[in-house]
Amino acid sequence: MPDEAPKNAPQSAADAAIVETDGFQLVIDALKLNGIDTIFGLPGIPITDLMRRLQAAGMRVVSFRHEQNAGYAASIAGYLTRKPGICLTVSAPGFLNGLASLAHATTNCFPMILISGSSEREIVDLQQGDYEEMDQLAIAKPVAKAAFRVLHAEDIGVGVARAIRAALSGRPGGVYLDLPAKLFPQTMEAAAGKASLIEVVDPAPRQIPAPEAVKRALDLMRSAKKPLIILGKGAAYAQADADVRALVERTGIPYLPMSMAKGLLPDTHAQCASAARSFVLPEADVVMLVGARLNWLLSHGKGKTWGGKGAKAWGGQKFVQVDISPQEADSNVRIDAPVVGDIGSCARALLAGIDASWPQPPAEWLGAIAERKDKNVAKMAETLAKNPSPMSFHSALNVVRDVVKANPDAILVNEGANALDFTRSIVDMYKPRKRIDVGTWGIMGIGMGYCVAAAVVTGQQVIAVEGDSAFGFSGMETETICRYDLPVCVVIMNNNGVYRGDEKNPTGGKDPSPLVFVKDARYEKLMEAFGGVGVHAKTPDELRRAMEEAVRTRRPTLINAVIDEAGGTESGRITSLNPAAKKKS
Ligand code: ADP
Ligand code: TZD
Ligand code: MG
Fold this sequence. Notes:
The chain has 3 domains: about 20-195, 3-Layer(aba) Sandwich (Rossmann fold); about 210-370, Rossmann fold, CATH 3.40.50.1220; about 385-585, Thiamin diphosphate (ThDP)-binding fold, Pyr/PP domains (Rossmann fold). It is an alpha/beta fold. It has a 6-stranded parallel beta sheet, sandwiched between helices. It has a 6-stranded parallel beta sheet with strand order 15-14-16-17-19-18, with helices on both faces. Strands 10-9-11-12-13 form a 5-stranded parallel beta sheet, with helices on both faces. Helices cover about 40% and strands about 15% of the residues. Helix 17 (about 420-425) links the parallel strand 14 and strand 15. The chain is built from 23 helices and 19 strands. The structure holds adenosine-5'-diphosphate, ligand TZD and magnesium ion (MG). Adenosine-5'-diphosphate binds near residues 172, 295, 297 and 440. Adenosine-5'-diphosphate binds near residues 233 and 238.
């Protein structure tokens, strides 16, 4: 009875699909419109269908075994790509599992969006006991750079746009986007829905530094007798690699890379002062920080590390700080020349003021550094050449060092205590953003999530060097690595425990020490359980063969490298922060 139908009524189910859209589709369309192509998450009520439909819409959807790992994956995907990494979780418990990664992203200045489904607002607010009831928005706020909730389908475009802009602009960070279950089935007219979406224009606007700030910084650097540049992971994130390198090379100033800035210039660069770190920090007179904060990782710019007489005394250095956050300067010590802007714009502005008349640093300073470097490198070479049985951290990492050198495009994931500190100092990096690790907090648990994300977003071989304790935090994701058939080679530095494996229960009781694990655990069987390759490596030769094979075949591989259980020290290299170790010393 076509005559009786209203004029604008759909003629068929297919037509109805064309004129109407729903909340699910609008979320997908909003993300796609903004170039999001990968989602890390874990399904369940109310986002199961969202994950299915994201995949159906052509997105890469990577499904994890625990939300914390999906979240860490999203955070590092954001760091590696400068697009917000997306983590999708269910409500309350899934959201809470993802929350650690949201806080981690904010702390490390990584752009990430945690999107969680949530329960019915009215019931949550009256605390009437909904399924997975929780006021997630309120809980996310203190650890997020920004947090938003969308209640109506027509606001999805704005909600996603605001989340993306908040994650990427200025100092990047973690953003929370709360999507209540009721939002997804809401329908609206498709054309109006499409018109409501926002493609974010210039989400990370350049920030040009003020000319007078640039001049102030250059004048200070020029006057230095013992200048030093410190490169941080903000500089690596900025992807202004050529300009940062030109800044270092044209000034001729020695530089220290922070952990994740290793490789921004090759660690083998003549101006790299890593091997003389404990000499250059207290000796330098003017220090330029580029995308690095003066937090605990740099002893807050004070104390003995910096030549201060006393734990909190200023060492007398002057500081230039190049950073996108105007609030960062003076956080710990006086910053004499803050340069506020994005690293690329700042590096270019500084370079414009460095001409042929720029004085190279005094030969005396460069010579003193070279001397320390040579001595320390020779000492290290001697240690690396030893071949004890069982393997030491050094003899095992000597192999990793060679394999990374032969595969400079591989991404190195690293966590643990001794397993972290030794790797950082022994394994040279050759290219930018190839080393990803525990970051600002020194957290355990980033390992397998980082491996998955690095392999998925870059397509490169991933090599993870993991403490046996560190690995345990995310070990189940070896299944994820196998399921997606990712080129990940995990090397566990297995010393039977946290820091070392030889601690005893002081009471002589049956329980083991809280710091040790099952002796000689066969972690490699975990990878075998899911169809990957497992190797038990007791010598450097066995380790080398297994790593070379993993890189050649790109198969998921776990190598259980057996390390002397008495080889580590408590807290790795950060004994100064450990009250127990302090007491002992
Ligand atoms: P590291 O741990 O390597 O020392 P931090 O995480 O402490 O590095 O510091 C990174 C700094 O880089 C932060 O202060 C952040 O504001 C800054 N930053 C991040 N992205 C940019 C950018 N694009 N331009 C300038 N500064 C940036
Ligand atoms: N929990 C979290 C989330 N982060 C942490 N940093 C810690 C606990 C404390 N911690 C460290 O700082 S390192 C470490 C823990 C538990 C593990 C060290 O043991 P490992 O490495 O086996 O990973 P080594 O090589 O044995 O030192
Ligand atoms: Mg260990």
